[in-house]
Amino acid sequence: MTWAVWAVTGFLFACGAAMIVLRRQLLAMLMGLELMISAVNIALVYYCSRYADGETLASVLLIIAIAAAEAVVGLSLILKVYEAGREVETESLQELKG
Amino acid sequence: MQRIPGGFAFLPWPVILLFAAPVAALLVSFFIVRPARPRWTHVPILASCAVIAACAIWILSLVLFQNWGLDLPLGGWMVAGDWLVSYGVRVDGLSASVLAMVSIVGGLIHVYASGYMAEDPGFARFFLAFHLFFLAMIGLLLSNSYIQLYLFWELVGFASYLLIGFWWQKKTARRAALQAILTNRLGDFGLFLAALILLAVFHNTRFALIFPAIVNGHYALVSLVGFLLFWAATAKSAQFPLYFWLPDAMEGPTPVSALMHAATMVTAGVFLLARSWPLISTVPVLPDLIAVVGAFTAIAAGIVACAKKDLKRILAYSTVSHLGIMVFGLGLGEVAPAVYHLITHGFFKAVLFLCAGNIAHGLHQPTADLDQVGGLRKKMPFTFVCFTVAALSLGGIWPFAGYFSKDAILDAALHRGPWAIVAGVLIGVTSALYIFRMLFLTFFGPSPRQKGGEHIHEAEPVMAVPVGFITLGTLLGGLLGHSFSTVIKSGWPVAQPIAALPEFSWSTFAVGMSAAAVGAGIAWVIAFVNPSFDWEWRTKYPALESALNSDFGWKPFVRLATAGVVALANAAGFFDHAVVDGAVEGAPRVAGAAGEQGRRLATGRINDYVWWMLAGAAVLLLAVMR
Q1: Are A65 and A73 contacting, i.e. CB atoms less than 8 angstroms apart?
Q2: ipTM at complex level
Q3: Closest Cα of chain A to B599: distance in Å?
Q4: How far apart are CA B152 and CA B165, in angstroms?
Q5: Disulfide check for B93: which of A63, B45, B487, B578 has CB 3.0–4.6 Å away?
Q6: How far is residue A69's CA from residue B415's CA, in Å, rounded to a whole number?
């Protein structure tokens, strides 16, 4: 059972990381980030049911709340960039170039 | 001797005024009078001179009649454990007697300067620097520790730099000022080192504390301190190795030369030696060395003075020579005669310089040449009388002041041994020779001797009257020998007393008078019997003339040594520029290059930053799992 959980969550985590690294659209990158968080959450849920650990379950709930907050912040940032009349793509957001 | 525990409240009024008057005068002149009425700058300063002279005479009479004295620590400047650098005031016979001479002569030279410099555009600047010079000397005389003395010693040097280079438009004046301060710095280093060694050994530099300890104990480093102090004195008092700055310091205005040669600057070195005498007398060999250096300087400078033509330059070499006599006397162990000569010399040398200044002023020149003058006794009768009195005094003729002090030193020399007798006689002959040559060629004979100077006139009263008063001091100074013996013994810092002036002896009188007569006779022959000789020998014996003009080859040697030092400094500068600066400037260049490479990592694309983030997370993960 454990290997199946690791395979699924590892696959989801890798997909999320690939989205962040490879996609240029900020929205897609944000979705990748959510995917990575969800993958970690699945693994945590498996282990808390296996060891009957309430504290881990609490931290899962905490992570869901943080993910929601993160989505709010991220989406509103993207919205601001959009309202500023700019493309929400990393190619056009390169002010930090050294 | 009365000793009072520290505190300003215990300072008597005359001592407070000695510092308060010049400081107040300088502040008022600088901040109030100079901006509003620059031509009146001298008014507060002359008032301060009057106060200083009155206080100095008051203090001297207290010392003379009541054996009064004071060594008052006023406060700690730097305190660390039992290490103490304090400041305070010391009044004893030595400082009171020299202070009286300095304040009287210096004050009268201030009056003279108010006439001499009246036309100068830098009048206000001159008086401020002049009075600062005076203040520094007063502080030096009243210091009660080596560190405090060193501070005023430096202030004297700095003020002399301002004044020698007063006419900064002249290249020669700038060079002379620079030479004076650099040479003095060379000597100052010795004094600074001496003060630091004393501080390290005794944890204190107060005269009253360290001299008794030195006399009663044995300290290895004190010998070194003695030599360093003498080194410092050779620079300030223009003795042999470091004398050469003084004749060139003639580039300043004449009142500066008079003040510097008579009262303030060059006397500081002799004063330092007299002040440190309890220390120096315990050092083996050093007193003999001092005597030899003094005698050598006195004779050599006296011979060179005989060949000079510029009036102020003759007097400058004569000052070097007479400082040599004082140092010679000190080296023979005769503190009282040396200090007495310091005082009488202050009077007659001031007169001579001011008379030379009157002549130059009459010619409307900064200085005068023997070629331009001659027969001035009719055109400048007053200056002639004053100059004659001072010249007789300098030549050591009875009963003028110079005779009494010089005779006392000669007396010591006659009791020392053959070499000292020869030195004493030679000194007597040469000083009479150069001063009578100057007297005869300036005031007798045709007028003018060669060129220029037909329109010379007598000095105006503001310049004549102070000269007259100082001349009076030259006339009367010899009568005060007995009182001086009483004063100088008062408050001597160690138990062993110093000897008074020697009693009159016919043999010393005969030797001194005949030496002076020989010198005066040669001068008479040069001036009257064979008047063209003084000009002809220069062309007949060019080797002799160039030897005398180069101070027997010492001046070229100094120039060479200076060039060596400059070359060394250039090498050090090259090292500094190439190696030190290279390292300092290389470091930021390396950092800049590294940054230039590093900025390429900052692409500005968010995806690339995420790569770095993931890599960081992976590293952290590995670190945690290990």
Answers
A1: no
A2: 0.85
A3: 5
A4: 20
A5: B487
A6: 109
How far apart are the C-alpha atoms of B95 and B311, rounded to whole Å? 32
Instruction: List the one residue out of B188, B121, B125, B122 whose CA is nearest residue B153.
Output: B188
Q: Is the dihedral of CA A25, A29, A34, A38 positive or negative?
A: positive
Alpha carbon separation from B409 to B96, B168, B276, B329, B518 (Å, rounded) = 21, 40, 19, 5, 19
Chain A contact set for B598 (CB, 8 A): 98
In the numeric block, the tokens 């360290």 are attached to B210
Q: How far is B603 from chain A (nearest CA, A)?
A: 5
Quote the strand ranges of B339-402, DSSP E: none
| Averaged pLDDT in 10-residue chunks for chain B of 626 residues | 54 88 92 87 91 93 87 82 86 91 92 87 90 93 92 92 90 90 90 93 88 85 91 89 86 88 87 91 90 92 88 90 92 89 90 88 78 79 89 86 87 87 90 90 72 69 86 84 82 80 84 89 85 77 81 84 91 92 91 89 85 91 89
Q: Are B516 and B433 in contact (CB under 8 A)?
A: no
Residues of A in contact with B607 (CB under 8 A): 20-24, 29, 90
The alpha-carbon radius of gyration of chain A (Å, integer) is 17
- The Cα–Cα gap between B461 and B464 comes to 5
The residue assigned the tokens 């500005």 is: B604
Q: Which domains does chain A have, with CATH numbers?
A: 2-86 (1.10.287.3510)
Contact at 8 Å (CB) between B477 and B344? yes
Please confirm whether the linkage preceding B5 is cis (ω < 30° from 0).
no
Q: Are A21 and B611 inside 8 Å of each other by CB? A: yes
**Contact at 8 Å (CB) between B14 and B55?**
yes
φ, ψ dihedrals at B285, nearest 5°: 70, -35
Mention every residue, 6+ apart, whose C-beta is less than 8 A from residue B112: B255, B258, B354, B357, B462, B463, B466, B467
Distance from CA of A61 to the nearest CA of B (A): 23
**The amino acid at B550:** S
Structural tokens at position B64 = 């003379």
Contact B228, B190 (CB under 8 A): yes
